[in-house]
Structures are given as structure tokens and as C-alpha cells.
Specification:
It contains eight helices and five strands; from the N terminus they run E-H-E-H-H-E-H-H-E-H-H-E-H. It is of the alpha/beta class. It has one domain: P-loop containing nucleotide triphosphate hydrolases (Rossmann fold, 3-Layer(aba) Sandwich). Helix 1 crosses helix 8. 34% of the residues are buried. Bound molecules: ligand Z5A.
């Protein structure tokens, strides 16, 4: 089982992943928590580059897929093979949301790079934590922002709209109202999981 969490920064992905990991621990299920950018040694180095430099959107996209290829082959697939549940904080939908809808990279180009790197590999289930921009800025007001997080409001509004479009036409992606209190968000996640897998 490969589960991913998506949404804009501040939507509560890290918070909910912690609750889900605690639940799997209680249930005695084997799992790993990973993230993108990052996840492997190479991925974490790529993450540092992406966070530090203002790159051309094409270079940003290529580096994200170099990371994803390594992540899928070295960590995600082997962990699934060992019977572990893999939970990833962001995966491929982030590239469609940020690099296609946000930065304007044509979807055909992203499809080609995806096909060249990870092929048709995709998550079994994706939780999209939906949050309005106003609330995102409230939650993130005290944080030091990295390069991507410094992109303007128009960029983030394209990203949120993109996520909403993807969630409305992709059955794998389940939209959860991320503006609810943390406990309620987790209740929603748990009830979807109970529907989809035998916990
Ligand atoms: N990126 C990309 O462009 N293309 C790609 O393909 C990929 C990534 C894979 C990674 O950033 C950046 O890379 C990201 C997209 C880009 N940049 N942006 N923007 P990251 O990994 O450093 O961080 P993030 O993924 O954007 O998320 P985050 O900042 O860690 O936020 P979060 O995990 O969604 O939220 P959180 O840390 O759980 O919560 C944020 C705060 O809100 C915190 O104080 C919580 O206590 C609070 N919180 C959480 N839930 C609630 C609720 N329900 N109510 C109230 N307050 C809450």
C-alpha cells in the first residue's frame, strides 16, 4: 500500500502523517514515512538545492523527477515488496500542481518525463488536504520561507485550483477539508482508510 499526502504548504500534511503513523504503530502494522523532495540520500541533496536556489522551472521539474526515480526504485518499491505500508509527504501530484498548474510547464512535457523516469507507478491512495490561501498564510506567518514558499499569491492560487481540479477527476485522490480542527481531519482520513483498506 502506497499512501501519499498532498496540498499546499501549511495544509497539515506533516501533522496528519504523524497521526497516521501512530495509528499504524498501535495496530502493529509495518510502515515507513518518507517525503519529496527527499526520501533518499540523493533526494535529500536535491531537496537542499531546490530549497536554496531559484531555478528555471524546467530544471526544477527535471531535478524533481531525478529525485522521484531514485526514491521509487531505492526506497518505495523495495519497502512495498517487504510488505510495508509507505506513507509519503508529497509525490507526483505535487509536480502537476506546482510545476504544471503553478509554473506553467506543459502537461505533455511532464507526462513524457514521468513516463521516462517512473513509468506508470502511482500511489494507491492520495489524501489532498484542501486549505484556502488565507488560512495557509495565517498558519505560516511565523515561519522562515524557502525559495518555493516565497512564490507569490497568484502562483499559490493556481496551485490550489490545480489540486482541486485533479481531485475532482482522479478517483485515487480524496479531498479532505484541511481547515477543520486537526482531530476532525484525522477522523475523515481514518474513515476513508477503513473504506479502502482492511485496517
Ligand atoms: N514541490 C514542488 O514544487 N514540486 C514537487 O513535485 C514536490 C514538491 C514534490 C516542499 O516543501 C516544497 O517543494 C513545497 C512544494 C515543492 N513548497 N511549497 N510551498 P516542504 O516539504 O518543506 O513543506 P510542505 O510540504 O510545503 O509542507 P509544510 O510546510 O511542512 O506544511 P504541512 O506539512 O502541510 O503542514 P504542517 O507542518 O502539518 O502544519 C503547518 C502548521 O499548521 C503547523 O503549525 C501546524 O501545527 C498547523 N496545523 C496543522 N493542522 C492544522 C489544523 N487542522 N488546524 C490548525 N492548525 C493546523
Amino acid at each position: 500500500m502506497f499512501i501519499t499526502f498532498e496540498g499546499i504548504d501549511g495544509a497539515g500534511k506533516t501533522t496528519q502523517i504523524k497521526s497516521l503513523a501512530n495509528l499504524f504503530t498501535e495496530l502493529g502494522r509495518e510502515y515507513i514515512v518518507t517525503r519529496e523532495p527527499g526520501g533518499t540520500e540523493l533526494g535529500e541533496q536535491i531537496r537542499d538545492i531546490l530549497k536554496k536556489y531559484q531555478l528555471d522551472p524546467k530544471n526544477e521539474t527535471l531535478l524533481l523527477y531525478a529525485n522521484r526515480l531514485d526514491h521509487v526504485e531505492k526506497l518505495i518499491k523495495p519497502s512495498i515488496k517487504q510488505g510495508k505500508i509507505v506513507i509519503s509527504d508529497r509525490f507526483d501530484d505535487s509536480t502537476v500542481a506546482y510545476q504544471h498548474f503553478g509554473r506553467g510547464i506543459p502537461i505533455e512535457d511532464i507526462d513524457k518525463i514521468r513516463s521516462f523516469t517512473i513509468g506508470t507507478f502511482e500511489p494507491d491512495l492520495t489524501f489532498f488536504l484542501d486549505l484556502d490561501l488565507e488560512e495557509k498564510y495565517d498558519r505560516m506567518s511565523s515561519r522562515k520561507l524557502d525559495t518555493i514558499e516565497k512564490s507569490g499569491t497568484e502562483f499559490f492560487s493556481r496551485v490550489v485550483d490545480g489540486y482541486r481540479k485533479m481531485a475532482s477527476n482522479t478517483p485515487r485522490i480524496v479531498r479532505i477539508d484541511g481547515s477543520q480542527r486537526q482531530e476532525k481531519v484525522f477522523e475523515d482520513i481514518k474513515s476513508i482508510l477503513l473504506e479502502k483498506i482492511n485496517l
